[in-house]
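Fig. S4 source data, part A: sequence.
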Amino acid sequence: MRDIDADSDDDDDNGINPRESTPTEVSLENVHSGTIFTQVAAGDSITLAVTDDGLVYGCGTFRCNDGVLGFTPTIPIQPTLIQLPGLKAVTHVCCGDNHTLALSTSGGVRAWGSGEQHQLGRRIKPIARLQGLIPREFGLPRNRTIVGVGYGAYHSFALSRAGDLYAWGLNSYGQTGLADGAGDDAAFVRKPRPVPALTGKRIVAGDGDAHHSIAVTAQGECLVWGRMDGAQCGIAVATMPAAALTGLGTIDDVPVTTRIANSAVSGRRLVWAGAGGQFGMLAAEAGEVEAEG
């Protein structure tokens, strides 16, 4: 393997090890003879494979803000495929950058990996972060049969048989479909919650990436939400309704002091105003009516 820290005098060196860039069959030295793989998934540094009898094999490692977190609590990096204990009757796995979800035939969902952005749907104390490497069920409702799982880089989804979509994890751009803290770099949805905007939409599939998400309904609609400044949502920003950054219904700069006189504040005595990087807020006393003039 190429040492990424090694100096090279070869101007033609493109930094790619031929062995890394050539598709090659993985080592099966720790895989039971006759095993048939039916599905695979990969994250930043983790690889998983599901067998036709519901077992899960994996190799690699999960990473956290400090570097390598581990493959299991006792194995920092696993070089070849081995069977993961405690996982049976699994029908599907998916991986975010550094977390994994596994769906079983009974509709149970287990999550493991790094939980720094709450993408595991359960609380992981920093002092016990290796416990996040153990696949466990978490806060999905037991009275809803889960039929699908999806993921973003640092957020997660679960789809119920009724078509409800549950979301949790990083929410800095509203990528969970929930408004909680959206716009804040440290915004999280800590436990699975249904996405109200999708109620009654009968979602059949959902997926995501770092800052945006996408879903398909039973009627064939494609729905998107989250960050859109790179056209990742397929919607031109210019076609969206006029921004409310100033409260004046315009996306243009307002160079001089201008009174806000829309229906939200008309007739109310305002008692407080505040602003953030991309938004403003006003407060009025309940029941107060703004004086004329």
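Fig. S4 source data, part B ends here. The CA atoms of residues 103 and 225 lie 24 Å apart.
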